[in-house]
Structure prediction request, 551 residues.
Amino acid sequence: MSDSRSAHRSRIASHLAGVPRSGIRDFFEIVSARKDVISLGIGEPDFVTPWHIREESIHALEHGVTSYTANLGLLELRREIAAYVRRSYDADYDPQTEVLVTVGVSEALDLAIRALVDPGDEVIYHEPCYVSYAPLVTFAHGRAVPVITRREKDFKLKRESLEACVSDRTRALILNFPTNPTGATLDRKDVEEIAAFAIEHDLIVLSDEIYSELTYEGERVSIATLPGMKDRTVFLNGCSKSWAMTGFRVGFACAPPDLTEAMMKIHQYSMLCAPILSQYAALEALRGGDADMRDMREAYRKRRNFIHASLNEIGLPCHLPRGAFYAFPSVAHLDLSARDFALRLLDEEKVACVPGTAFGDSGEGFIRCAYATDIEEIQEAMERIGGFVARL
Amino acid sequence: MDELLKLLKQNALESPKNLARMLDVSEEDIKERIEAYEQQGIIRGYQAIVNEDQLDLENVEAVIEIRITPERKGGFNSVAQRISKFPEVVSLFLMSGGYDLLAFVKGRTLKETAYFVSDKLATIEGVISTSTHFMLKTYKDQGVLMHTDEEHERLKVSP
Prediction:
């Protein structure tokens, strides 16, 4: 009996079958096999975590701080997060009931989706986008509904395009501005229109603002701060990008108490808590890391200016990315798919960029060039890409 | 500080073309600003930061604390400026605290440096006393580490 069952049924849960491996992972394996590659494919800061932040973790370790923390995270850290969110985003959260410390913002996003989605519920997300949004919705037995953002609109999300994607089953909307991989940001007016849309359709907004400290121009508006939005927004952020702390894995979610409680329930039975040493590092980053963050932002801004000017000069048209650390130039006019462009560039010039299709089908015709790499490497990469494009 | 100066302090060899792109201004503008800084004496030179410990030069470097009597008219300045003219003196600072001037001195041999302190420095009118500390090893100089940590390599492609 059991034999015939196993013959018919895959060992792997069926809802996973349709989820492809990340296109990034695929490309990573191709690039890893090569030597002497200049990589513009790395989606994390090239800076090492500032020393005083690392030192705080070392100090904690030396003093035997090796235990669990409260499920929500150290109260001291949650207080500091609330203070940071208040001064930087002008949003008020109660550290006792509305702040949850997670293992990277990735976990926070997973928790938020699982806390909200019943089987068959729909979640709208904008594309091209970070690789995990649609899979996480699928893992929660929901249906991920992409809304395409376009280069002609600088990859901004517009209310008109959202209207076409909403249904009775739509439960939530995921926002990620500044966006990985496009570097797009939203103006206040865009955010206001999206907020009105969310209210009208009674949606919860999951706002992944992990890149918001890397905004180079324009006003930075968190949707959580607009009238009527705090109660329907999960504000997601973390230390990875702002303080070059990707390996520490510290993120946080700020949300109304019922949502925080629901997320905490999943978190407490799965992760239990974020690593304590990382929480102490995060505490130091939030307390004393403003200057580090500013310095890194200024360094990224210069590289952004450089890469934007260079790509356009080379003949790869590129909108000005106003945030994050990615340029997303078009290669559509070159008669090569994004993947072929990236593969040939790797073969012929040893420069790695990620094909836009890793970030959704709408990324066809684009490549992502991360400028979280030192300026000399970016300069060399631009020369090589220039030579490559000239030969095509 | 002007962003241009910050970039030049990081890498004085950066080309005007690259500087122009990074700061989103014209190359001409960069050249003019650098020239102006040079003329105003804000930029006073361009040097490589060399780890001399690796060169087996057998140089002797010392830090000397100097107590001086301020002069009626010139204060500390005239004595300090006089000391600063010696080629052996690499850097010189007026300090708060238990002594007045701190001099970084470089010589070819211990004997040469000792001679400079006893015969030149200590005999200058206005110098009350000196206290000399010889440097043994350089770990960091002008903000640059003199040892290369084994570098941690990031994944070549990540989301």
Remarks:
- Chain A has two domains: 2-48+291-391, 51-288.
- The interface with chain B takes residues 22, 24, 27-28, 31-32, 37, 39, 41-44, 46, 48, 130-132, 180, 298, 302-303, 305-306, 309-310, 352, 354, 375, 379 of chain A (CB under 8 Å).
- The mean pLDDT of chain A is 95.
